[in-house]
């Protein structure tokens, strides 16, 4: 028997991370929605986009801390990434 390696593909990049609240999301897939949650699970930001691969987000008025970006792509795949606002 053998064990197949599981390959996870990083489908998007958040930069700069950490940031002061403004950051860019780049993806190799078309993004259809963006949701951002704080560490308590409260929604801090949400938007529906028209299949773009790059988006600029401004959370500079939000509290400092750890947030989670959840992107949905055009194939209904969900991708999550941690970001830090300092």
Describe this structure in words.
This protein is mainly β and 86 residues long. The chain is built from no helices and 5 strands. It has strands spanning 12-15, 22-38, 43-58, 65-73, 78-85. Strands 1, 2, 3, 4 and 5 form a 5-stranded antiparallel beta sheet that branches. A hairpin with a 4-residue loop joins strand 2 and strand 3 (43-58). The radius of gyration is 14 Å and the shape is globular. The protein starts with 11 loop residues before the first strand and ends with a strand.
**Which strand-content bin applies to the residues?**
over 45%
Largest beta-sheet characterization: 5 strands, antiparallel
Helix content: under 10%
Given as residue ranges, the uncertain stretches (5+ residues, pLDDT < 50) are 4-8
Distance between the termini: 48 Å
Overall morphology? globular
Number of strands: 5
Characteristic key phrases:
five-stranded antiparallel beta sheet, mainly beta, 86 residues
């Amino acid at each position: 028997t053998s064990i197949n390696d599981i390959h996870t593909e990083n489908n998007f990049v958040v930069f700069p991370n950490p940031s002061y609240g403004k950051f860019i999301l780049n993806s190799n897939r078309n993004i259809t929605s963006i949701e951002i949650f704080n560490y308590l699970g409260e929604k801090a930001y949400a938007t529906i986009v028209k299949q773009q691969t790059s988006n600029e987000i401004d959370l500079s008025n939000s509290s400092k801390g750890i947030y989670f970006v959840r992107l949905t792509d055009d194939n209904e795949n969900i991708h999550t990434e941690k970001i830090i606002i300092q």
